[in-house]
Automatic annotation (TrEMBL):
It comes from Hymenobacter qilianensis. Residues 1-17 form the signal peptide. Residues 19-32, 68-82 have a biased composition (Low complexity). The keyword Translocase does not apply. This is YtxH domain-containing protein. The keyword Repeat does not apply. Residues 38-56 have a biased composition (Basic and acidic residues). The lineage of its organism: Bacteria, Pseudomonadati, Bacteroidota, Cytophagia, Cytophagales.
Amino acid sequence: MKKVLFLALAAASFTFASCDTKTENATENAAENVEESGEMKADAMEEAADSTRDAAENSADAMEDAADATPSTTTPAATTTH
């Protein structure tokens, strides 16, 4: 009988020990909010970087297209035959 009572008390104490406190829950929520905020900032930075890279590529493409459309003003090198 004592063993059964002891085991029941031990199980009950483990049950209560595993419960989260309000302070622990608040701390976990705050940590999750910080993590989520950081992820949102990182996503915004990635989008800005993508936009900057796309703009640079578009500018480079436009410059290359303009260069291709402009006729060459240099004379070709003379070829010699032996």
